[in-house]
Automatic annotation (TrEMBL):
The keyword Disulfide bond applies. Acts as a defensive agent. Recognizes blood group fucosylated oligosaccharides including A, B, H and Lewis B-type antigens. Does not recognize Lewis A antigen and has low affinity for monovalent haptens. InterPro entries: BG_Antigen-Binding_Lectin, FA58C, FTP1, Galactose-bd-like_sf. Residues 37-192 form the F5/8 type C domain. PANTHER family: F5_8 TYPE C DOMAIN-CONTAINING PROTEIN, FTP DOMAIN-CONTAINING PROTEIN. Belongs to the fucolectin family. Keywords: Calcium, Disulfide bond, Lectin, Metal-binding, Signal. Pfam families: F5_F8_type_C_2. Residues 1-19 form the signal peptide. This is F-type lectin. It comes from Pinctada imbricata. One of its GO terms (biological process) is regulation of cellular defense response. It comes from the Eukaryota. Homotrimer.
Length: 192
């Protein structure tokens, strides 16, 4: 019944938008109804495929990093304060290719990753970051994207993954240069 009501509302709205200078024929009515049904089916198909709204899959999940200057879990505590003194940023020591990753617990569809950069010092440390995804095997071979940088103070970097990227682990890794420090104040993995 709900679907029929929606169909009628869309049909009426579609008919009024296009207007008629003459009385609509049966063909006009059927044509508009067909377009309306097609639009609704397309919307319903997309909603079913998406399985609801995006959520932060990384929140309070298990995290790891190559070395520890500040605990890796601070990046998924739900606090995006970019000031070091707030105590909510994760950081590695200085090394060649530092990395940080999160275990989402199970495989999910991943849409995008949002990274909050440090704001009070050294924002340029966030550069040449590859964002990769792995399944249960921990082979980080699915590339979501790259942030070339250098980052700006308190910048929220968004890396969009290719459609239908699926994985359990999401890793950030600086891939160029030496003596790099990877500092992230929040990492949100948006998906379903």
């Amino acid at each position: 019944m709900y679907l029929l009501t929606v169909l009628l509302l869309v049909f009426c709205a579609h008919s009024n938008v296009h207007g008629y200078e003459r009385e609509p024929t049966t063909y006009d009515l059927i044509s508009n109804l067909t377009r309306s049904v097609s639009s609704i089916l397309h919307i319903l198909k997309d909603e079913k495929a998406d399985n609801g709204p995006l959520k932060n899959l990384a929140y309070k999940r298990e995290t790891y990093q190559s070395t520890t200057f500040a605990t890796s879990g601070k990046a998924v505590d739900g606090i995006s304060n970019s000031q070091w003194v707030a105590g909510s940023c994760a950081s590695t020591h200085s090394e060649q290719h530092p990395y940080w990753y999160v275990d989402l617990g199970k495989e999910h569809i991943i849409e995008r990753i949002r990274i909050t950069n440090r704001g009070d010092c050294c924002p340029e440390r966030l550069h040449d970051v590859d964002v990769t995804v792995a399944g249960h095997d921990k082979r980080f071979d699915a590339v979501c994207g790259t942030f070339s940088g250098p980052g700006k103070a308190s910048e929220k970097v968004v890396v969009q993954c290719p459609k239908r990227t699926k994985g359990r682990y999401v890793r950030l890794q600086i891939t160029k240069g030496s003596n790099n420090v990877l500092t992230v104040c929040e990492v949100e993995v948006m998906g379903r």
